[in-house]
Design a protein that fits this description.
The chain is α/β, with parallel strands linked by helices. The protein is 32% helix and 20% strand. A seven-stranded parallel β-sheet has the order 8-9-7-10-11-6-12, sandwiched between helices. The chain has a six-stranded parallel β-sheet with strand order 13-22-21-14-20-19, with helices on both faces. A five-stranded antiparallel β-sheet has the order 2-1-4-3-5, with no helix packed on it. α10 (317-324) crosses α19 (562-576). It is globular and about 85 Å long. It binds a DNA duplex through β1, β2 and β3.
DNA sequence: ATAATAACGAGA
DNA sequence: CTCGTTATTATC
């Protein structure tokens, strides 16, 4: 007999089912393999969890229809992890496995079978049971492991070398890392992975996007040597994707880097997990049960007793909470070292000066920014960070089409999508009594602005300087180190060897004005990620921030102190009762469906429905709060309510998300 | 989807 | 009371 996880989306069927194993399938039906079974009359896919001698099921058992392949794609660690993630996020194991195990590619599997010779696989260390701590210096015999790496750039952090040697000794250190600005972070991640690999175990690195993955890939190749690591990324194509994933599942490759989906990669003998830039919302999986890479990797580090390295240039409240709870230690450089590597950050300056500068007005850029950029262009490229296309629309006089400007400081007025009153792009002020200075009309209309328009305006202000644009689908990976204006949206900033000579961060209020709990944290993260690409202040690197300088978030950038800002943020959320200080759940659906769902949910003690608010097209969202300790009980209650719904074939859609990032 | 089971109602 | 039909429910 065999226990099978059947791929059905129904919450009340989220458990294994027993099947008979026909004699002719006995050899192929190994734990972890894919099977086809008849389930409620239909042929469905599933994973064979394990073989059992007796069944609890009182009725008659059906037999397996087919063993799809004897390849054990569902390892015990991933099966247990999927259960844990499903419990954590009020989802089903089947949903998690859809995220965790890539679609089978028969040709890739056959090719991999021939390639992965028995001799090679025997030489790699046996898969240790989850939780088995590696003994110091233990590992596969044969001396094929890389030597313990030098700390290299980790020397810049007081605790850096100790962190690496703890990894190399298999002591599973956990750190929340505030990376120094500059280009060294991929090297630091690679050295941490190498240190873990020196102790025998594997390492798993998750980064937000393909650009960062490319950097980590290169660094891993340099530190580990060829053929010792694999990259798992979306957009590889089904065959290549499955081929690499299989090499990992078979234990042939033990150091894995990838984007979000790689958080479930079945790395053998996990000794280190790394999450880079954990505040990036790309780390949040948009498909049910909406797991977050930081949370999943923290769970895995805990399960496998592996080391953990979670960080970026900025610091999230969530990572800060990991430090506050004692789960991880802070890993950061002292102030004098930070000052050596950070660029000079200055606020854009006084309004009065801006209004007089005609060139600044035509470039829609404050005059200090303009002067800084002009001076810096002698030394190299200058980065201009502007909010995402479509985010912001400039406005003009409805009658005479003259561009609308702020009466106070002369900055261009603009509106966000959504119909809020126009605001100044420099000082963020609204002006309800605005009148066109040219014709006296008092109404404005939107004018289309995009990259091209911004690029044109900047070209005029910087005659003879090349202007390049990066954002959206047309993202540049890097630009050469020569004078140019580089206009980019947050997250799409091209890299440049030696760093930008300067950067201008425009439209700060747009990021800060977002109606989100995480607006300030997210603004700081985006600013720091751009500013980290600029040369150090000692080499003339300067960043001009166009935002209200008195705001704590602006001060955090100016002083390059993400930790204090994140600690303050966490304290505020504790006071307000928001994540990560508490566990939050969002229940979304039609008003009737959500009300019915809440009515039949037996919330655990201390959990409370905060309220229900409209959420888009005839939908509402209810928010439920519970103490962190009660998070699992809350998820279990919500899961049970979902199970009751699916059991009675309720057609209405209700979506349950735990800790919905950035949406509250 | 489908099969087992419960519920129901008409005719003996 | 029994048989045939229809709703319900569980899904190995």
């Amino acid at each position: 007999m065999a226990r099978v996880l059947v791929d059905v989306p129904l919450a009340h069927l989220d458990r294994p089912f027993d099947y008979l194993v026909p004699e002719r399938m006995a050899a192929a039906a190994v734990p972890g393999c894919r099977v086809r079974v008849r389930f409620a009359g239909q042929l469905t896919g599933g994973f064979l969890l394990d073989r059992v001698a007796v069944s609890e099921h009182p009725g008659r058992l059906a037999a397996l229809e087919r063993v799809v392949s004897p390849e054990p794609v569902l390892t015990p660690e991933i099966a247990a992890l999927a259960r844990e993630v499903a419990d954590r996020y009020a989802g089903t194991v089947a949903d998690v496995l859809r995220l965790a195990i890539p679609p089978r590619h028969a040709a890739a599997e056959a090719a991999a079978r021939a390639e992965s010779t028995p001799g090679l696989r025997a030489a790699s260390a046996p898969r240790s049971a989850p939780g088995a701590p590696g003994e110091p210096g233990s590992g596969p015999a044969g001396g094929s492991l890389p030597p313990r790496p030098e700390p290299g750039p980790w020397e810049r952090y007081p605790a850096g070398p100790a962190f690496l040697s703890a990894l190399a000794d298999g002591r599973a250190p956990r750190a929340v890392w505030t990376a120094l600005p500059g280009p060294d972070w991929p090297e630091e991640i690679a050295r941490a992975a190498a240190a873990a690999a020196a102790a025998g175990p594997g390492a798993l690195i998750v980064v937000p996007d393909a650009r960062d993955l490319g950097l980590v890939d290169t660094a891993l190749g340099r530190v580990l040597g060829p053929g010792r690591h694999a990259c798992l990324a979306a957009g590889l194509g089904p065959a290549e994707r499955y081929r690499r994933w299989l090499a990992v599942a078979r234990g042939d490759i033990r150091v894995v880097a990838g984007t979000r989906a790689a958080m479930f990669a079945p790395v053998a003998g996990l000794g280190l997990v790394v999450v880079w830039d954990d505040g990036d919302d790309l780390h949040a999986e948009p498909r049910a049960p909406y797991p977050h890479a930081r949370e999943v990797l923290a769970l895995r580090a805990h399960r496998a007793r592996a080391g953990a390295l979670i960080g970026g240039f900025a610091r999230t409240a969530e990572a800060t909470n990991l430090v506050a709870s004692g789960w991880a230690r802070a890993l950061a450089a002292p102030r004098d070292v930070v000052r050596r590597f950070a660029p000079d950050v200055r606020p854009a300056g006084d309004d009065a000066e801006l209004a007089r500068d005609e060139a600044a007005r035509s470039a829609r850029m404050p005059s200090l920014a303009l002067r800084t950029a002009r001076a810096a262009l002698d030394r190299g490229p200058v980065l201009v960070q502007v909010p995402r296309r479509g985010y912001l629309t400039a406005v003009a006089c409805e009658r005479c089409r003259a561009p609308a400007r702020c009466a106070r400081c002369g900055g261009a007025l603009a509106v966000e999508a959504g119909g809020a009153p126009a605001r100044c792009r420099w000082c963020g002020r609204t002006d309800p009594r605005w009148r066109c200075p040219a014709c006296g009309h008092d109404r404005v209309r939107a004018v289309v602005t995009g990259y091209r328009r911004t690029a044109e305006e900047l070209s005029r202000a910087f005659p003879g300087t090349p202007v390049v644009v990066s954002g959206g689908t047309a993202t540049l990976g890097s630009v050469p180190h020569r004078p140019a204006l580089v206009i980019a949206t947050p997250g799409a900033e091209p890299l440049v060897a030696g760093g930008y000579a300067a950067a201008v961060l425009l439209d700060g209020w747009v990021l800060l004005g977002r109606p989100s709990l995480t607006a300030a944290q997210e603004a700081l993260r985006r600013w720091m990620n751009a500013a980290a690409l600029v040369a150090p202040g000692s080499a003339g690197g300067t960043v001009i921030l166009v935002a209200e300088a008195a705001l704590p978030v602006a001060q955090a950038l100016i002083r390059w102190d993400p930790v204090t800002h994140a600690e303050r943020e966490l304290a505020e959320r504790e006071a307000l009762g928001f994540p990560p200080a508490v566990r939050m759940a969002a229940v979304t659906g039609s008003a009737a469906a959500v009300a019915g769902f809440l009515a039949e949910t037996e919330l655990p003690p201390q959990a409370e429905v905060i309220g229900t608010a409209p959420a888009g097209e005839d939908k509402v969202q209810a928010l439920i709060r519970a103490p962190r300790r009660g998070g699992l009980a809350l998820a279990a209650a919500l899961r049970q309510a979902q199970a009751a719904r699916t059991a009675r074939k309720d057609a209405s859609q209700v979506r349950v998300r735990l800790d919905p990032a950035g949406e509250i």
